[in-house]
Amino acid sequence: MTISYTLKVANSRFGGFSKLLFRWKGSIYKLLYKEFIVFVVLYALLSLVYRRLLTEEQKRLYTKVAQYCNRSTDLIPMSFVLGFYVTLIVNRWWAQYTSIPLPDQLMCVISSNVHGNDERGRILRRTLIRYANLSAVLILRSVSTRVLKRFPTMDHVVEAGFMTQDERKKFESLHSDFNKYWIPCVWFTNLAAQARRDGRIRDDVALRLLMDELNLYRAKCSMLFHYDWISIPLVYTQVVTIAVYSFFAFCLIGRQFLEPLEPGQEGDLDMYVPLSTLLQFFFYAGWLKVAEQIINPFGEDDDDFETNKLIDRNLQVSLLSVDDMYQNLPPAVKDKYWNESTAQPPYTTATAAETLKPSFLGSTFDMRMCEDAEQSQPAEASPSMMRIQTPLLSRFFTAASPAISIKNFGRGSRGHPHLRHPRADGSFPSPYPNRSKDPESVARIEEEEMEDEESRASEPTTPGGRPGGTQPLEASKTQRKELPLIQVKAPSSESIGADRPEAWEP
Fold it and tell me: Measured between alpha carbons, how far is 104 from 107 in angstroms, rounded to an integer?
């Protein structure tokens, strides 16, 4: 049976794990003591032969061999090989447990969707869930030694009530070279379809839900079959086993307490009992035995799955759910906290201290904010707020190309009249569509535009095509005050033409 010690480690206390070291059933001592005795006996025999039977010359030769074997143990990556292998085995072990088919979801769907208080309805529900349990018994018989010992033949399955004689005849009349655990699932689908035609299942949605749950149940049966069929590659198991056995074969020779080769040379401390080597054997060989025990959890080891108990539980619970509990509901009444806005279940004296603990409201709930009141005031955006200007960025855009400037980006298409599309009446759209329609502001903007055009026309251009002058100081101050835009030199029409590829000169 499965050895459970969960309650013993529910609370962390002094010496909590130490108390588990004195348990025998399911322990590493029970699993490893035979191999441990063999290793100790072989080590003692070699030690006696070295100390009592070898001559001085033979001892010198044995010392060299032992030193070579001791160095060879460092060449075997025991931690890597065993660690990866045991991790793979443990993951596979837990996946096999989660693949054991449990009828809990399926029995709830059957109980709620297959209707009828009469005998026919009761027979339908019990037969459907019995077919599901029969499929699980058939697959467990083929993978678990415990279940096979309990149901060695189909007669035992019929006698246990999982199958009738007529169903057995149907089962055995279907000849197949493969495992036939899936036949009860097919019976289930056909019977469910018949119940839908008879109106016992009231709509196709309920039938679809029933089929989906059955498919999940059948898929778990299939996964158990595949886990039993596809094992961990044998070569990997052999590599790990050879690595462990060869490591300790070298340790038997190389970890002996030896006399020094030279007469005046200081030798190692003679402890007679190699404690560190014995601990290594306990860890590494124990690791291998753990993998050996759980590589197939459907055997009869102490920690293998209790499949027979699972069969008993599943049959009993599922029949209760679809039969005795069908439409057997307690009366729906007002709960205890009907008139209370906040439900607070009572505490016992043993748990009263938990009521004094504050509720967890979030990790930042108790964070202290800055005490400066001005830092907590919301910042409101306004049209008069000055924009942040980056001189280096403006300098980069200005120097990149005469046709690319901050002013061109800020003033939209005003720097490139040929890119503005005229309206139907022949006028051009305003470069500031979102700006206020105040007449004074519009007039001031138009006046500034005219001044900009006159200044650009009167400015001398450099040989590179750049205008050499600057905008009037008063106009720029007025525009900066009224319209917070970034103002940079605008290129002239000659400079724009000079930037075109056909106007470049070598």
Answer: 5
